[in-house]
Specification:
This protein is an alpha/beta fold and 563 residues long. The chain is built from 23 helices and 22 strands. Strands 1, 2, 3, 4, 5, 6, 7, 8, 9 and 10 form a ten-stranded mixed beta sheet that branches. Helix 2 (52-68) links the parallel strand 2 and strand 3.
């Protein structure tokens, strides 16, 4: 039996809640299989047992519960579904947190049930598969080897690369159960040819990375964690997993996580805890622990409004982007999806030319670009919206007398054509050029200078008269402070006060200069759309980006909104 202790989590949590003074000392009992919270004399005890899939969410809710109700003592024991049910019937706990339905011999009269969340899995594919739906029946056939080529489900004529999670994975057991299979019987039923082709990447997150980078592959990943990465999720029976489709039962790959308790339970802590499950604080804790909270019909209606009734083609939004600017897509996507749950957003990583073509032909509604459209591209029916700019600051040592450089001079300095400060109005001293090893920052900067691809460390050191390459912004700031003749580029939010920021073409990287497009060491970001092939989801997405909330979302990522 494993030992689980909350030795660090609660003290850290309480440090973030200065306005709340706990009324009892938190003591943690080092006994096998126990997690005990807030133990002190006179408190009302509550014992909960549960299964693996219910453990993290129960912990999260319990933490929040005792933070708000310190008069209760809560003990959580991880015992698994079967043992938890047995112990509840025998009176060894007051509540059991379960992830499967009760069997016939486990059901007894007088037991109540409350569903508090859903464990849901998303089906993910490589971005270039090009299909927009699978039926549950097709998914079963793919995972039993009856369908082996993407052309059988409307995709390319390529063999399907099928992935599973590792042996012992709760996600794998749940996935197979959702498809109607016992895990052991499922693997025993597979033919040797199909079994030999199954791919099982090991370790948390590896299946997501494998599918995202392996052509013609398919896998499954927990929702809502897929929202934190750029994975291509495929609708099943016309639905993607979200709060609306899961809670109303339209999405098939979801299972209830629930508590059972005796309807005759007299412990006041049970009722208080059950009431607490309906609060916003509990639902937030449940979501953060990896489940979709069990929202009522009224809550769903207030979250989704009438737009949840739009036809699927109006609710599904396809966004394409290049891997180089994936982070910018994230800045816009997260804020919109948090406020518009009823839309299914599917992102796709494409090269710039393919992104533009996909908007022209209507397979994507929107594409994100880091340049404006050419006249030829506009003639093809494309329109653009300038979102804002990502600025890079040019910093030098505080003792350097240079205050301004032209954009052309900066380019010549960072490509080794200007090597002495005297050439740009400074002292007769060799320029010490500092680059960053951070691929994103270097890519951004050299893209601004006009390079499609950033130079490598070796090329910089051998050809651009660069004295140093540093890994992190704090090291770059340190180098600028300590080397009087040095110069570097850095995101403006990483610049320390001890360094000197110079103007470029007469403009400092200040908010108004950036937002008006006057500060040229910046990457512009545009959303591209085809006004003849835009749907309601895309219209609302573009509208959101123009709101104060939309601008705040992108500025959180260091982009300055355009004026």
């Amino acid at each position: 039996m494993k030992r689980i202790l909350f030795l660090l989590l609660m003290p850290l949590f309480l440090c973030n809640c200065a306005d709340i003074e706990p009324t009892a000392q938190n003591i943690y009992i080092d006994t096998a299989n126990d997690i005990s919270f807030n133990i002190n004399e006179g408190q009302i005890p509550l014992t909960i047992e549960g299964a693996s899939l219910a453990e993290s969410s129960s912990r999260a809710v319990i933490e929040e519960f005792i933070r708000m109700h310190p008069e209760y003592q809560v003990e959580y024991r991880h015992e698994g579904n079967t043992q938890s049910i047995k112990d509840l019937h025998e009176g060894l706990c007051q509540m059991a947190a379960l992830s499967r339905e009760l069997k016939a011999d486990e059901s007894k009269s007088g037991i109540n049930k409350i569903t508090y969340g859903y464990y849901s899995l998303a089906i993910i594919t490589h971005p270039d598969i090009g299909i927009d739906n699978l039926t549950l029946s097709q998914l079963k056939d793919i995972y039993t080897g009856n369908i082996t080529n993407w052309s059988e489900v409307g995709g390319p004529d390529k063999e399907i690369v099928v992935t599973h999670r590792e042996d012992g994975s709760a996600a794998r057991a749940q996935f197979l159960s959702m498809l109607g299979y016992d895990e052991t019987a499922y693997f025993d039923s597979l033919d040797d040819t199909f079994l030999s082709r199954l791919i099982v990447p090991e370790g948390g997150g590896r299946i997501e990375a494998f599918v995202n980078s392996t052509p013609y592959s398919i896998g499954y990943a927990p929702f809502p964690y897929i929202n934190d990465t750029f994975l291509t999720s495929i609708p099943i029976d016309g639905n993607l997993p979200n709060e609306y489709t899961v809670c109303n039962g339209n999405y098939p790959l979801a299972s209830q996580i629930y508590y059972i308790f005796s309807e005759n339970e007299t412990n006041s802590a049970v009722k208080k805890y059950i009431d607490f499950l309906e609060t916003a604080a509990a639902k937030k804790a449940i979501y953060n622990a990896g489940l979709i909270p069990a929202y009522s019909d009224e809550e769903l209606s207030s979250m989704y409004s009438l737009k949840s009734e739009l036809p699927i083609e109006e609710r599904r939004l396809y966004i394409s982007y290049s891997s180089y600017i994936e982070w910018m897509t994230n800045a816009c996507y997260e804020g919109f999806s948090d406020k518009n749950y009823y839309y299914d957003i599917i992102t796709s990583n494409k090269e710039l030319k393919s992104s533009l073509q996909s908007v022209i032909d209507g397979t994507s509604h929107i594409a994100l670009l880091n340049r404006n459209l050419t006249s030829e591209e506009k003639a093809s029916g494309l329109s653009e919206i300038l979102l804002g700019y990502y600025p890079m600051g040019i910093i030098i040592n505080g003792n350097n007398p240079v205050d301004n450089l032209s954009f052309s001079q900066i380019k010549d300095i960072f490509t080794g054509k200007i090597t002495n400060w005297a050439e740009v109005g400074g002292d007769n001293s060799p320029i010490q050029v500092i680059n960053t090893t951070g691929y994103s920052d270097r890519s951004n900067f050299y893209f601004i200078l006009g390079f499609d691809n950033p130079p490598t460390d070796e090329y910089i050191l051998n050809n651009y008269s660069s004295d140093s390459v540093f890994e992190q912004p704090r090291f770059i700031n340190w180098a600028i402070r300590n080397y009087e003749n040095s110069i570097a580029y850095i995101p403006i939010n990483e610049i320390e006060n001890s360094t000197k920021i110079i103007s470029v073409n007469g403009y400092l990287p200040e908010y108004d200069n950036i937002s008006q497009g006057n500060y040229v060491v910046s990457i512009p970001f545009y959303y591209i759309y085809n006004k003849d092939k835009i749907n309601q989801a895309a219209k609302d997405y573009i509208g959101y980006l123009m709101t104060a909330d939309g601008k705040a979302a992108i500025e959180y990522y260091g982009i300055i909104s355009s004026k």
